[in-house]
Amino acid sequence: MQKLDTIFTQHQQISPDVYPQPFPYIQNKYLINGELREWNGNFQDVHSPIFIKTDKGLDNFIGRYPMLGEKEAVEALDAAVNAYQHGNGEWPSMTVSQRIACMRKFVLKMTEQRTPIVNLLMWEIGKTQKDAEKEFDRTVDYINDTIEALKNLDRDCSRFTFSQNILAQIRRAPLGVVLCMGPFNYPLNETFTTLIPAILMGNCIIFKPPKKGVLLHAPLLQAFQESFPKGVVNTLYGDGEVIITPLMTSGKIDVFAFIGSSRVADIIKSEHPKLHRLKSVLGLEAKNPAIILKDADLESTVKECVSGALSFNGQRCTALKIIFVHESIVSQFLELINKEVENLQIGLPWEARTQITPLPEDGKATYLTGLIDDATEKGAKVINENGGKHYESLFFPAILYPVNKEMRVYHEEQFGPIIPIVSFKDIEEPLNYVVESKYGQQASIFGNDSKEIARLIDVLVNQVCRVNINSQCQRGPDDFPFTGRKDSAEATLSVSDALRVFSIRTLVAAKNNPANTNIIHKILKEDQSSFLNTDFIL
Ligand code: G3H
């Protein structure tokens, strides 16, 4: 392992190509009601997980963004409410084809901003260049796939249904004003997996970026402004208590789309005066286990577990956060995983071989060290030589063994580079862990005996929402349903599910008699309604 205090470097050693431009990046604009307004109030300094060595010591100031207040929050809300206009605004009244045309314009403009966004992803949250590029490209693909899914959905709705002498046209209609809040680990992708389908379905949105990963949205403000009618997309930056509370307490938010912790989700939800009116779309914590059976192919299993536990330093809700290994193979497993982890390259995001990068959350190294100290006091050991070594935001991954239920790391979602390993004799031990866990997102089984795997599948599918065989947990491909049970999620997201989540089935129905069919014929023939029509999108 490279000595941690030699990783951060001087300004001159860093290629200008990977810097945000300008540097520091001062964002002084925000988008409300179709206007890119200039901000003259207080700003929040942005500190990067990446430090630069200077004559005066380490420096990590990379920019600032506006700290908007309650007044701007209310203006954003009014803009979205007016744009929606009880469903009669320009945007919700548009045909699906017209909305798709606006989204296509947006995605073209977004593509032009790839480099600035990728660079800001590296500097704001420490994602490797390769993963930052993947996040951007995956998001563009997600938008294009969502457009195609909406076309299909609309085609299915472009005909009439007859039942019990009633004819009807059933479509999906928007829900109203949507508040979208994404997480720091996928600030672009996960925010857009709710924001894009919400917009496409005809809703008007207010969007607040996560605390870390704010500036990277600035290059898109103009694209939003130029692609959608005023008030359809509004952005807010600042302290949640100041800007989110007035939105929720107004009772005018119809959908709350949030990816983050259940603690924060519960606080925000509870501020809404009419909970039954609020639809929530939540992606929350998880503690996905890997269960390694005695006949697993150890080499490939170890590789998959390391990647599952440590991609983006373990800062993924889908990461493998605890590993149960059958006692008969545990020493072999430990030997192999030790080697694999010690070979990981810790470094700066743009360096080609880097796998582990600086952590963006304040105080994260202290939190992780606390988990390690607690576990070692209760009998676990850090198996790998460099495990838990840290310097500023750099933290080398630690393998902890043997972990048991007395330790915090057995229960808490570490969301960082720690791999807790538990050895088991009886398969009921990991299964009980899953049943007793607060979370229920995914699990991975590694083994070769189809009979044993089949039995585990049948138990686990009623505890979590995705069971992975000989592969790590993950969200993708994005057309697969992504959800969780218990404290892990509310609602299901995927390219097509998200379109359903942000809309409601609505129909126009009439008794099938000559008078009614005449009216309907006339509406269709003269193209009098956006909703009631049989246009087929090509
Ligand atoms: O943080 C949770 C993300 O949804 C994980 O997505 O499995 O594609 O990394 P991923």
Folded structure, characterized:
With 538 residues, the protein is an alpha/beta fold. The protein has two domains: 4-162 and 175-283, 3-Layer(aba) Sandwich (Aldehyde Dehydrogenase, Chain A, domain 1); 288-481, Aldehyde Dehydrogenase, Chain A, domain 2 (3-Layer(aba) Sandwich), CATH 3.40.309. It is 36% helix and 23% strand. It is built from 18 helices and 26 strands. A seven-stranded mixed sheet has the order 16-19-20-15-14-22-23, with helices on both faces. A six-stranded mixed sheet has the order 11-10-9-12-13-25, sandwiched between helices. Strand 14 (288-292), helix 11 (298-310) and strand 15 (320-326) form a beta-alpha-beta unit. The chain starts with 8 loop residues before the first strand and ends in a 13-residue tail after the last helix. The model has no long low-confidence stretch (mean pLDDT 97). The chain binds glyceraldehyde-3-phosphate (G3H).
At a glance:
The protein is of the alpha/beta class. It has 18 helices and 26 strands.
Blueprint of the fold:
Elements: E1 9-10, E2 25-26, E3 29-32, E4 35-38, E5 43-54, E6 57-66, H1 70-84, H2 90-93, H3 96-111, H4 114-125, H5 129-156, E7 161-163, E8 166-174, E9 177-181, H6 189-200, E10 204-208, H7 221-227, E11 233-235, H8 240-243, H9 245-249, E12 255-259, H10 262-270, E13 279-283, E14 288-292, H11 298-310, E15 320-326, H12 330-342, H13 364-377, E16 381-382, E17 390-391, E18 394-395, E19 398-401, H14 408-411, E20 418-424, H15 428-436, E21 439-440, E22 442-446, H16 450-460, E23 466-469, E24 485-486, E25 489-490, H17 495-501, E26 503-511, H18 514-525
Parallel strand pairs: 1-5, 2-6, 9-10, 9-12, 10-11, 12-13, 14-15, 14-22, 15-20, 19-20, 22-23
Antiparallel strand pairs: 3-4, 5-6, 7-8, 8-26, 13-25, 16-19, 17-18, 21-24
This protein binds glyceraldehyde-3-phosphate.
